[in-house]
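Worked example

This section walks through a single chain of length 472. The input is the sequence exactly as stored; nothing has been trimmed or padded.
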Amino acid sequence: MLLKKATLANNALSFKVHHANQLKVGKAYLEKIDFDVILIDLSLPDSKGIDTFISVQKAAGNTPIVIITGIDDEDTALKMVQQGAQDYLIKAEVNAAMLARSLRYAIERKRLWLELEEKSRALQASEASRRLMIDQNVDGVLIIDQKGTIQFANPAAENIFSRNRHELVGEQFKHFSNKNKNSQLDILRSDGTRIVIEMNLAEVDWEGSKAFLASLRDITEHQQAKKELSQKANELERRNMELDAFAHTIAHQIQGLLGHIIGYTSYLEMHYGPEMGAEGQDVLHRILRSGSKMSNVVSELLLLAQVDKKDAPLVPLNMKEIVAEACKRMGFNAEERHAQIIQPDIWPDVVGYPAWIEEAWVNYISNALKYGGTPPVIELGWEQDNCGMIRFWVKDNGQGLTAHEQRKLFKRHSRLLKTKVKGEGLGLSIVQRIISKCQGEVGVDGVPGKGSIFWFTLPLFEENKQRDANAA
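Given that input, the structure is written out below as tokens.
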């Protein structure tokens, strides 16, 4: 997409792109096709980091290479530029125009460099040939002697400083330091404007003496784009926070209204149900059921947003009280389906975030009620493993799940047996996020026709863990 935009951003360029999503595929292309420029990402499925660049460089010959990556690492960037990369672009900072310019400059710089090498060999590295090639370089070039005096400036350097070479040559370059090979300079030009320059120094022989070649690139637009992106990111974060606050306000208002609907409907059913007849009672029952489902959906959405943004402080849990509250919340559904819920008398001491763990139990019990047998028989339990974790589980007497169906679970909006139960499919994805935040895992076991066992793990409370270790 960026390459297409880059073509539109520069009418003089037209790219024919060959895309490879693996290093080995890209190297196969290099054996068959002569490319003008190579654009590589450092995070490929079969290769990472600087090794990717080295491998491509060996196969690419003299083809210019531009790095584009999400890794903002100055040391890595410097190493690859020093080893021959033409540019190092950060995905979050680059736009189509910058990419087009970088590719064009990379091709041009490599072309000029190859021409320079060829002519240097042909003319035995004559100074005249080297000056000619430097003059044609799209980057600004200064030759600076050991004392910091400018000996040569190419046309691109004249444009950067807004001064001709006769004014520059013989002048002391105040930004020169042979101890700092790479730096960014804030330059005040002769026309009063300020620009940001990236300077790279390299030692060279110039007219029989040791000198420094300063390669200068105007990165003012790049820095401005980076600043604008940062400002836009901050603005987007501010708007997201406002939108999040608004959504929470609306959600809580909806929950309040649903609470009124459910409360008044329960009042009508309790005091006037017998007078309304079978049809009226059925309508009230449907209102209660729909209101309860809608309230659960809103609660799930609020919880999902909270889980994504908040870290869970892990504290000792009273699991017996948490399970009792979860069963109480599911009491209406359990009574409606004539369900039997069996649970142990003793629960282990674990750590977690109480409100979230209650929601995990609610989701598991809710699924067991929806997809269990007729009537549902639900068993809650726990067991300890050898790694200091407690595995809690909910077993139902439903039709069970195939291995394929089990793999689809715990993904947002994944829901099985869609013809049987309607819903939003948010519950299990929330459970996975909750338990992950509490340093545990989730899963499901079972075979078709014999029910399912949904489980999650939590860390054993440290005092109990130490006591068990001492007893062992």
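What to look for: DSSP finds 15 helices and 17 strands in the chain.
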